[in-house]
Amino acid sequence: MEQFESLLTCCVCLDRYRNPKLLPCQHSFCMEPCMDGLVDYVRRQVKCPECRAEHRIPYQGVQGFPTNVTLQRFLELHAQIAGELPDPTAGQVMERCNVCSEKAYCAPCAHCDKKVCEDCKSAHMEVLRREIARINNQIRRGVNRLQDILAVVERNTANLQTNCGAVAGEIDEIHKRLAKALKDRTDFLRTEVDRYLATELRNLTHLKDNLELELSNIQSNCDLADKYMNDDVDWEDTELVDTKEIFLKTVEFLRNFDYEAGDYNRRVRFIMTHDPNQLVMHVASYGELNITNPNAYSAGLQQSQGLTRSKSDHRLATQFRQQEEAKGYMENDEPILGGRKFGERRPPPPEKHTRDYSATDDYSGYESEHRPSRRFRSRFVRSHQQDNDSDTEQSTRTVKSEHKEKEKEKVADTEDATRGPLSGIFRLSDCPRVIQRILDVDSGKKKEKKEPPPPPKPVQPTPQPQRRPPPVRQQSEDDEISRLKRQNKGAASSQEPERLPSRPVEEERPAVNRKPPTPAREASSEGESDEESVGSLQRNQRKSSVQTQKPTATRRPSASDTSSTHRPAARATSTESSASTESSGSAVKHTGAILSIAELKAKYSIDGPSPKPISRILSAGNERSAPVTTNGTVSGAQRVQSRFVGSQRPTPAPAPAEPAPEDSDTSSEEETDSSEESEEEPVTQRKPESQAMARSDIGPLLARSTNARNDAHDNKSKETPAQTRYRTRQSSQTEEEPSPRYGASSSSYSSRYGSKPKDEELTSSLDDESKYPTARSRYLALKERRNRLARSKSSHTGFGAGDDDDQDEPVSPTTASPSAYLAARYGSGTGGSELSRSRSSHALKSRESSPERPVTGEKDGAALSSWARYLKNKYGSRGKDRDTSGTSSSSSRRLSLGLPLRSANELASSDDDSKNAAGSPISPTAATAAVAGFAAAGSSPRSQYLQKRRLQFSVGSRGSEPGCFTWPRGIAVGPENIMVVADSSNHRVQVFDSNGIFIKEFGQYGSGEGEFDCLAGVAVNRIGQYIIADRYNHRIQVFDPAGRFLRSFGSQGTGDGKFNYPWGITTDALGFIYVCDKENHRVQVFQSDGTFVGKFGSFGSKLGQLEHPHYIAVSSTNRVLVSDSNNHRIQVFDVNGRVLSSFGEEGSEDGQFKFPRGVAVDDQGYIVVADSGNNRIQIFHPDGTFLRAFGSWGCGDGEFKGLEGIAVMSGGNIIVCDRENHRVQVF
Amino acid sequence: MAALPRRIIKETQRLMQEPVPGISAVPSENNARYFHVIVTGPEDSPFEGGLFKLELFLPEDYPMSAPKVRFITKIYHPNIDRLGRICLDILKDKWSPALQIRTVLLSIQALLSAPNPDDPLANDVAELWKVNESEAIRNAKEWTRRYAMDN
C-alpha cells in the first residue's frame, strides 16, 4: 500500500498526482504546477526531473503532453478503495492569486472580492476573524449602551405609565367637576324658568278673571240702563245721579283702562354668559396634553428623560418599523449583508455588475426613485405571486432587483423572525448556516471552525458604494436593457452549474439554498417590467396619496369640526410643526404626504422639541398601519436616500469639523501620527471600502467615531447619523442630481429634490456651527499671536511707513483673513523653525527700527534686500491684521505713526489694497474673499466648488500668435487676477486679464537672458514678479512685473541649486521660491534672489519621496503640496520639507489619480488637482479628503486632453492649462 | 511572504518522521525554509566521527531551483571551500525537482566519503589530495577532530 501510495505521488510536488501528464520518457508529473514549473521557456523544452531527459514541448504547451490515463484510473481506484473524498481542487485550473500572485487554485474571497489562493484566503479569514473579535470587543464594550438604553426605556415605560395615569386621573377629575357644574347650572336655570312661568301665569289668570268680571258688570249695567232708565220707572234723583256717576266712571274706566301688554308680553330668553360656541369649544378643548421637550438640541439624544425620551424613542422605533415595512427588509439588508443571506457567497461578477449599478452613490437618485417599486413588489407582489404570471418585458433594473428579490425572499423566509427591529441585525445563531456550523463543531464530525461570534457586518459602517467603480451609465435604450437582461438572466441561470463543480464542499448547502426559483417566483420577478415598476410606483403613489388623506383626516376633527375659535388654540401648540411643515415641506406636500418622516426627523433633530402633532401622527401610525406605511412609502425614498448616503460616507461628518483645525494647527508629529493611522486603517479595516474613511486623515478620531458610528448604526436611532447624513448629503448631492431621466416617473423623486435646498440650508447652518469653534480657536491663536506681535508690530509698520509705504500701507481689513490665518498658524505653528527663524530675525530687525529711531529704520530699510522687504510687508500687513478686530489699536497706532486715520473708509481703500493683496501669490483671494473671516466663509468655497463643473470660458487655441498657445503648461494667478500662462512650446509667457483678454507676452526661444526653452512652471510673487521655470535651460528666471528680465539662477546638474528639467514653481508668502526639480525627483527652495535654501525629496515611492514631481503649491498655512506624479499622489510637506501627509493613489475613482500634474490651493486650503491621466479636475478638502471631481477626456467645453498647471483665482475660479487642446479653461 | 508550499511541508514532515540515518535537518523556528542540518561523517572516511553542521535554505522557487547548502563547520575537503560552499553538481546544473532535501543531504554525505579532487573548489586541498593523498587525509582527519568533534 505504501508503495502504491508512492506510485501515485508526483515526485515534484510530493502530492497525489493531479492531472498527470506523461512525458515521452514515461515519467509523469502533475500538469500544474509541476510540469509548468519545469518548462524552460527559452529553449521551449522540458527536462524530466527523474531522468533528465529533455523533451520538446508540444505546440499547445505542457497541456499537449498526453495525460497519463492509466495513472489517473489508478488514482480514481485508489480514491475509491481508500474512501477518500474527491480532491476539492480536481478539475480546477490554476490561476494567479490576485493577492500574492502565486499560481494556485483560486477561489473567490468574500473579504476582498477577488479570486485568491487558499493561503491568502485563510489569511484573509484570519484577518476577518481577528477583526470580528476586535469588533466584538467593541460591541461588548458598547453593548452596555443598549442596556442602559433598555433600562432607560424601562424606566421611561414606568414613568410614562404613571405619568399618563396621573394625567388621566386629572382629566377624569376635571370632567367630573365640569359635569357637576354644568348639571347644577342647568338645573338652576330650569327651575328659574319654571318659577317664572308659574308666577306669570298666575298673574295673567287673575287679570283675566278681573276683566271678565268687569265686562259682565258693565254689560249688565248697560242692559239695565237700556231697559229701565226711562220714564217707566220712577227713579229718585239721587239714584239717577249715582247711576250717572257710575256710568261716567265706567266710561272713564273704559277709556282709561289700558292693558299693559308689555308686562305680560315679556319673553324669557336664555342668554349665555359666554358665546355658546366658544363655550363648547372651550369645553371641547378644555385641556391639552402638553408634551414638553426639555432640551432643544439633544431631543431624545442623551439627556432627555421621561416623556420626551420615551416619545422620541418611540418615534424612532416607529420610524424604523416603517422603514422596515416600507422596504420589506430590503434596504436594511443592503447595508447589512449586501442583501445576501448569511454566509452566502457574494453574487458572481456578472451580477455584481448590476449590483454596482444600483449600489453606487452616483445613482442613488435613481436608486431611491426605483426602490419604492421594489418595496411595493416585495410586499405586494410576493403575496400575489401566483396570479401575477403575465409577464411582459423586463428591464435591467428589475432584473437586478430580481436577483436581490430572490435572495431577499430567502432572507425573509429564514432569518426574518429574529431580526432586530431597529438595526436589522439578526441573531446569528438562528441562521441555518450558523446552526449547521455549530452543530458540526459540537458533534465533532467535521473539524470546521466555529463560525465567529456576532456579526461585524451590520455594525460596521459599510461605505460600500464608495468603493465601487463608478459604473458607466447605461443608456436606457430598450435593446440595451434587453441585452443586459439577457446577460443577467444567463448569469443567473448559469450560476448554478458553474458553482457546483467549483465548490463541491458546499454542494449540499447551495443546493438547498439556491434551489432554482419556482415558476411562480420567476413569474413574479419577471413580471416586473420597466413599465410595470413605474406603474406600480405610480399606483403606489396614488395609493399613498389617497391614504395619506387619512392622517390629515384624523387630524382634522380636532381642528375643523370645532369652530374656528378653536383653531388658534390647536395651532398654538403645533406652531412649530406647522411652521416646519410650511418651510420644509412645501415641496414635499405636493406628493401627498404630509411630511416625510426623514424630513421631520432631521428637522427635529436640529430644531429641538418635536411638537405634539408629529407624535400624534406617528402614534396614529402605530395604531393603524395603513397611513403610516403610505407615509413611509412616500418618504421612504427620501429616508432611505439619506440613510444610504449617510452610511456610505460616514466620515465626512467628523472630518470637516475636527480635523480641519487639528491637522493644520497641531504639531506635525500629530499629523504624521494621523497620517500613519490613516495608512494603517485600510489594513485593519475589514473592507477596503473604508479606505475612503481612512483617506479622510482623521486617524485616531476615526477609530473613536467608528465606534460611535457603529453604535449609531447599530440601533439607527440616533440623531447624530442624521446630522452626518445631512452634512454628507450635500457633498454627494451634486452627484445625485444628474439623473433627470428618472424624474418623470415619480413624484417622490421630485419631492426629494424639492426638499434638497432645505437640506442644504441645514447643512450649511450645521457647518457654520461646527466651524465656529474652529474659527474661534483660530481667533484665539490669532490673538495670542497678536500679543506676541504687539511688541514689534508698531516698529514693523513704522518701518514699512518709512520705507515703501504704499505697499505696506493699504492692507485693509479685507486682506486680513488669510494673513490673519497665517498669523494664527504661525502662532501655533507647524510653521517650522525656518519661518520662526526668519520671523525672529525680522523681529530683531524691526525692533531696531522702532519708531523712536525712525532714521535707523529708514537706513535699515534702505539696506534691506527686496527679500527683506517681503518679510517686512508680510509682517507689516500682519500687524495690520489687527485692524479687523481692533480698529482702536490700529488707529492709535496710526496716530502714533502720524498716519492719516482711516477707520471708517478703510474698506473704500480696498481697491488698491486688492492690488497689493492679490500680488501675494499665495493669497490671491485675499482682497475679495473672506471679508467675513473664516467662520462665515467656512462653508462657502466648499459649496462653490461643489457647484463647479461648468466652463466659464476658455482662452486660446493652437498657434503662436498672441492669445494662442502651443502646449501651455504652467499657469499662475497674479495681481488683479491676471492669468500668467507658460506657453511652453512657443517659449514665451503670456499674460491675460481675469476675463481672458490678452495683455502682454514676453520671452522667446533661446538660452540667453529673458529667453526660454520650453518653459514649464510660472509663478508670480507678492510684488508681481514673474518667476519662470525655464525647463530645458535648467534654470529659473525672474522678471519684473513689466516683463523685464531681472535675474536667473541655476544650471543643469544634481547638486544644490542645480536642476534637471525644473517644472512646477511657486512662491510662498515670504517669497521663497519652490521648484519641482522633476528629473532630480526633489523640490528645491530658494530665496527670492536665488539663494539656495534647502531641498527635500528623493527618488522613490515611500512617504516623503518623489518620483517626477511636477507641480507645487503652497497654502496660506504654509503647507507645501507637491504633485508626486509618477507615484500618483499629492504629498503635503511643511516648509521644512517634512512630510505631513499624502493622499491619493493610482486609479480613476474619486480621490485617486493618474499622473496628477497641476496642483493649486486656495486661501481656505482647498486643494485643486489637475488629474492629468484621468483628464479631470479633482477638488479636495484641506485635509485631503475628496470633495468632488469633474471633467473628462475630449476637446469640448469642460473636457481635457492632458492637463498641466492649475491655479485658483481669488473668486474661486479654477484655471487650468489644457495642454493638448492648447487652451486655458476657466471654471 | 507567501505561505509555505505543500511540498516543503511534506518534506519537512517526512524528515521529522523518518529521519535519514546520520543526517538531521531541523527547520528554523522563524523561517520554515531555513534548515539547520547536521551530517555525521561517513564511516571509513577521514571525516568519520565528526558532526558537520550545515545550513540549508530553500529558495522561493524551490523545488524548481536547488536548495542552497553550505557547510558551517570547517572541513578539509577538495570540493568544499573555506567558506563552506559545496561543489556538487546536483546543487547546480544537475538539480532536478525530483530531488529532495533528503537526497541532497545524502549526496553531500556521499561526497564526504568520496571526495572528487578532479572537480575542485578548494584548489590547495585538491592539489594535496591528488599529490599526497595520505597527508590530505591526515589533514582531513585533523580538521575533523579539531572542528567537528569538540562540540
Automatic annotation (TrEMBL), chain A:
Q: What is this protein called?
A: Uncharacterized protein
- The biased composition feature labelled Polar residues covers 537-566, 627-650, 720-733
**Gene Ontology molecular function: any one:** ubiquitin protein ligase activity
What is the organism lineage in this UniProt record?
A: Eukaryota, Metazoa, Ecdysozoa, Arthropoda, Hexapoda
Keyword Repeat in the entry? The reply is yes
Extent of Basic residues compositional bias? 372-382, 785-794
Q: Where is this region: Disordered?
A: 322-590, 603-863, 875-900
| Source superkingdom | Eukaryota
PANTHER family from the xrefs?
A: E3 UBIQUITIN-PROTEIN LIGASE NHLRC1, E3 UBIQUITIN-PROTEIN LIGASE NHLRC1-RELATED
Q: Which residues form a coiled coil?
A: 125-163
Which example biological process does GO assign this protein? proteasome-mediated ubiquitin-dependent protein catabolic process
Compositionally biased residues, Basic and acidic residues: 341-358, 399-418, 439-452, 496-511, 710-719, 845-861
Automatic annotation (TrEMBL), chain B:
**UniProt keyword annotation of Transferase present:** yes
User: What residues does the UBC core domain cover?
Assistant: 3-149
Task: Please give the SMART domains that the UniProt record associates with this protein.
Answer: UBCc
Query: PROSITE patterns from the entry?
Result: UBC_1, UBC_2
Q: Which residues form the active site?
A: 87 (glycyl thioester intermediate)
InterPro entries for the chain: Ub_conjugating_enzyme (IPR050113), UBC (IPR000608), UBQ-conjugating_AS (IPR023313), UBQ-conjugating_enzyme/RWD (IPR016135)
Q: Which GO terms describe its molecular function?
A: ATP binding; transferase activity
For this UniProt entry, which residues form the secretion signal?
Answer: none
What is a biological process (GO) this protein takes part in?
protein ubiquitination
Q: Which Pfam families match?
A: UQ_con
One cellular component (GO) term of this entry: UBC13-MMS2 complex
Q: What does the UniProt keyword field contain?
A: ATP-binding, Nucleotide-binding, Transferase, Ubl conjugation pathway
Give the CDD domains listed for this entry: UBCc_UBE2N
The record's family statement is: Belongs to the ubiquitin-conjugating enzyme family.
What's this protein's name? UBC core domain-containing protein
| Species annotation | Euphydryas editha
